[in-house]
Design brief:
The complex is a heterodimer.
Chain A lengths: L9 E12 L2 E12 L3 E5 L6 H8 L7 E6 L2 E3 L4 H6 L2 E4 L11 H5 L14 H14 L15 H14 L4 E5 L7 H16 L3 E5 L3 H7 L2 E6 L2 E7 L5 H9 L17 E11 L5 E11 L3 E6 L5 H9 L6 E6 L2 E2 L5 H6 L2 E4 L3 H5 L6 H6 L7 E2 L2 E2 L1 H14 L16 H14 L4 E5 L7 H16 L3 E6 L2 H7 L2 E6 L2 E7 L5 H8 L17
Parallel strand pairs in A: 3-8, 3-9, 6-7, 7-8, 13-20, 13-21, 16-19, 19-20
Antiparallel strand pairs in A: 1-2, 1-4, 4-5, 9-10, 11-12, 11-14, 14-15, 17-18, 21-22
Chain B lengths: L2 H22 L1 H16 L6 H26 L7 H17 L2 E2 L5 E2 L3 H24 L5 H20 L19 H5 L1 E2 L2 E2 H19 L1 H11 L1 H6 L4 H27 L10 H11 L11 H21 L3 H37 L1
Antiparallel strand pairs in B: 1-2, 3-4
The chains are: A alpha/beta, B mainly alpha.
């Protein structure tokens, strides 16, 4: 390996690890070094084997061949608790928290502090949790139920949980995917502090700029093999992408704008009252033309997702009017608004986008069954044709549409959700974080699809917390902060500084207690 | 993938696929096993008369289980079906014997088809109450239908002060005769009860497999939020399944009263549990989203044949209960094993393609 480091700095070494699942080889002779007091970045497309490698390190899976060496001693993990005993902590991508328990109870789950027969010492747990959270610069009450926290805050709790176990090696799988820019900064400071304390961090992310910024060593996985291992200073984003997918990739499908004069969508004074007073969405008005991509940027809790929910009719107590092609939409529920030409691609694919037990095909046609139905009978042939058409159209990897949708990779699942929305024949497409948690290749596909749909005359409103994404894709950029629209820029006048400034508007020292915000 | 690996893969798969196939057919196999066992162990078991008699017994539970299957697929449960059976039997019996007393010396009598329709409407109406409690007032299905279980049973007992409406032959001058046909009539040698089961089962299977409503039922049970966001009117779907379950229960209430020519207010106690057992035995997942009408009917037959066969063998009814419980648990254990194996087979197929 080309990263010439003195061996003493290596705290964990994976040597020649191969992992065979029934019929498939997830890892092929992987060597992976983890350095003490450093951020060890691991990248690769979905399905490259990152998760498998992490599961082996965390003791969830056992390698078929090869060994794990910690501080020069070969070890074998019979389970996750063995790994934890060896100082390995993991922050999972899919949050592994109990929403029905408090923050403190989550942090000490399965390691409760007890006082013999008198049961759990809640006060002590809460005190220690508060200390941890303060170290993470988050003022979350340890007694809060996890269900009442925003996703970003939940991620912080996950990190606190790993820290509470005195991890020497901390695995972070996509820790920033749900965080706002401010929260990411805090996380990076926490990482720097952990580094200084000698903790080795294994960092997995799809956000390449982020990796270049905080990584010390980078390892690239492709198809179960290591394709590159370098010290971070010597390489750039281009290099990473090349190692990941084997060639230089075009990031975003930046095409000529297809904006027409015709207004396709208008929202007037959309507001969503907050339970505790004030507004989650505060009288937002915006319009979209045919062929236009309107990007909505903002921090976590700015009310972006809630705005899309209001537009879609998911909140019965939301106020304001919407117009499609100049005609007022009287329908106030999801079903009615889908019929009028709105479609939402939700942020949380697993929980709101897909029905895991149904087949790929059934998921795709779920919202548009009407168009395949005569009287009460589903025309199976026409349904299958439409499914096949969209599988081709969106370049999905779905050899058998009758298979359960849970058998697909994240990127392909996202395409199923997009296909479902497109099959309703929408005039306006609402997309909430359409690229969250999918790999570079699928991301590019999704962006290309967005561009193409816009060129076909659709109006697209998409929400993102990725600044590069919003700058590259949007014809216009709307910025939200504290539920209000704080900026609206044409692509030509938008600069990162302006957009960031608008997203921070109204954020004084007294940020609203975000634990009260509903994240649905 | 190299050729060697491909071959290895194919071989490993066929073994697992075979096991998977056997497990998928487990309810069939169980049915076959009980049939073979009892035809050897119990004399006269395979006689046509006995088979038809057993089918008549099974049909009642199967009808309830069909309604229950839809409810369970949406992620709910309907504990009130047994009480609906009892109450609807009392409604039918009361209408035949006493009519409706209008209070000023007049009593309205309906003819039998009208009585049947009214009774079915009562069953559907109770389903509406269950559905409204669950969708509008957000009562958990278990609690809502547990409440209805008590209320409807109480109403059934109140309707006659606990007495039986006996001798439902009706009076020709009121046009209330002929109620017996429902339970005792037969077409082409098959009892009407079994024809009703066939009709309801076909309709239910069609709804499940070929209509948007059926797809919606599965989607609501699989992921209610995703279903709602796809424009499915979740509450309407839930209303439908409880109404349909009430309808099936009313049908059973009518058939039992007609077979016995009497309505007893305690009829149908614990029927709900047998219906749930049949659905589960047939592969319906209690967590929602999975299940088939065909599986449920086979499940009902396994349970029914098991208890009738054991009776014919002279096994004590106490043991029957124990055996029934073991069969149900075994079915769910195999179900879990099947799911695991299925995941593995899918993994292999994916690897084979990738």
């Amino acid at each position: 390996m080309s990263a010439g480091t003195e061996p003493s700095s290596v705290v964990l070494a994976i040597e020649g690890v191969t992992k065979v699942y029934p019929g498939t080889m997830a890892l092929k002779g992987v060597d992976f070094l983890v350095h003490r007091g450093a951020v060890n970045v691991l990248v690769g497309e979905n399905g490259a084997g990152k998760s498998t490698l992490m599961k082996i390190i965390a003791g969830v899976e056992r390698p078929t061949e090869g060994r794990i060496v910690i501080e020069g001693e070969p070890v074998q993990f019979a389970g996750t608790d063995d790994a934890v005993r060896n100082g390995i902590g993991m922050v999972f991508q899919e949050l592994n928290l109990f929403p029905n328990l408090s923050v403190a109870e989550n942090v000490f789950a399965s390691r409760e502090i007890t006082r013999g027969l008198r049961g759990i010492d809640h006060a002590e747990q809460e005190r220690q949790t508060a200390i941890l959270l303060r170290r993470l610069e988050h003022d979350i009450d340890p007694k809060t139920l996890v269900a009442d926290l925003a996703i970003g805050q939940q991620q912080i709790v996950e990190i606190a949980k790993a820290l509470a176990q005195d991890a020497r090696i901390l695995i972070m799988d996509e820790p920033t995917s749900a965080l706002s820019a401010v929260e990411v900064e805090i996380l990076f400071r926490v990482i720097a502090e952990l580094k200084a304390q000698g903790v080795a961090i294994i960092y997995i992310s799809h956000r390449l700029e982020e990796l270049v910024r905080i990584g010390d060593y980078i390892t690239v996985l492709r198809d179960g093999r290591i394709t590159g291992h370098e010290k971070m200073g010597t390489i750039d984003v281009r290099w990473i992408v090349r190692q990941m997918i084997g060639s230089d990739a075009k990031d975003f499908a930046r095409a000529e704008s297809a904006v027409e004069e015709r207004e396709v969508f208008r929202a007037e004074a959309i507001s969503l009252p907050r339970r505790s007073g004030g507004y989650l969405v505060d009288h937002v008005s915006l319009d979209v033309r045919a062929g236009e991509i309107l990007g909505i940027y903002g921090l976590m809790g700015a009310g972006r997702s809630e705005l899309l929910d209001c537009l879609m009719g998911r909140h019965t107590h939301a106020r304001g009017e919407i117009f499609i092609e100049g005609v007022r939409v009287a329908e106030r529920d999801v079903t009615g608004r889908i019929e009028r030409g709105l479609a939402l691609i939700p942020e949380d694919r697993q929980r709101e986008g897909l029905v895991q037990v149904l087949s790929i095909a059934a998921n795709m046609t779920l919202a548009s069954l009407k168009s395949f139905t005569r009287h009460i009978h589903i025309d199976a042939r026409r349904e299958r044709e439409a499914v096949r058409h969209f599988i081709r159209d969106l370049a999905m990897k779905a050899p058998d549409p009758d298979r359960e949708v849970s058998s697909m990779s994240g990127g392909n699942q996202q395409k199923v959700v997009i296909a479902k929305a497109l099959m309703t024949g929408p005039k306006v497409l609402l997309m909430d974080e359409p690229s969250r948690g999918i790999d570079v290749g699928a991301k590019a596909d999704v962006f290309r699809t967005m561009r193409r749909l816009a060129a076909e005359g659709l109006g697209i409103i998409f929400v993102t917390s990725d600044l590069d994404e919003v700058m590259a894709l949007s014809d216009r950029i709307a910025v939200m902060s504290n539920g209000r629209l704080t900026g609206l820029f044409a692509r030509a006048d938008a600069t990162e500084d302006k957009v960031v400034a608008a997203s921070a508007a109204g954020h004084g020292i007294d940020r609203p207690q975000s634990s009260l915000e509903s994240t649905q | 993938m190299t050729e060697a690996a491909g071959r290895l893969n194919g071989k490993g798969m066929s073994g697992a696929a075979l096991a998977l196939h056997l497990m998928k057919l487990r309810t069939f196999i169980a049915l076959f096993a009980v049939l073979v066992f009892f035809s050897l162990a119990a004399p006269n078991f395979l006689s046509t008369a006995n088979l038809i008699l057993m089918s008549k017994h099974v049909a009642l539970n199967a009808l309830l289980a069909i309604g229950m299957t839809f409810v369970i697929i949406t992620g709910g449960i309907d504990l009130s079906v047994g009480s609906i059976v009892g109450l609807c039997g009392m409604v039918a019996g009361g209408l035949i014997l006493n009519g409706i007393d209008l209070g000023f010396g007049y009593t309205v009598f309906f003819n039998v088809p009208e009585i049947i329709l009214i009774t079915l409407a009562v069953g559907v109406g109770i389903g509406i109450i269950n559905g409204l409690l669950i969708t509008r007032l957000n009562v958990a299905p278990f609690i809502a239908t547990l409440g209805s279980l008590y209320v409807m049973r109480g109403l059934a007992l109140l309707s006659s002060d606990g007495a039986t409406f006996a001798n439902l032959v009706g009076r020709p001058e009121y046009g209330t005769t002929g109620f017996a046909t429902l339970g005792a009539g037969s077409i082409l040698g098959l009892p009407l009860t079994i024809w009703i089961l066939i009709a309801v089962a076909l309709a239910a299977a069609y709804i499940a497999g070929r209509t948007p409503l059926g797809r919606h039922i599965f989607a609501v049970g699989g992921n209610e939020r995703a279903a709602g966001l796809s424009g499915i009117r979740v509450n309407r779907v839930k209303m439908f399944v409880y109404m349909f379950s009430g309808f099936c229960a009313a049908l059973v209430g009518l058939i039992i009263s007609s077979q016995l020519m009497a309505s007893h207010p305690a009829t149908g106690e614990t029927f709900e549990l047998n219906a749930i057992a049949a659905a589960v035995l047939g592969g319906t997942s209690m967590s929602g989203g999975r299940g088939t009408i065909g599986g449920t009917i086979i499940g009902a037959f396994v349970i029914g044949i098991l208890s009738d066969g054991l009776v014919m063998m002279g096994v004590s009814s106490f043991w029957q209960t124990v055996i029934k419980g073991i069969v149900i648990i075994a079915a769910v254990v195999v179900d879990q094993a099947q799911r695991k194996l299925q995941q593995r087979v899918v993994l292999r197929q994916m690897a084979g393609e990738g």
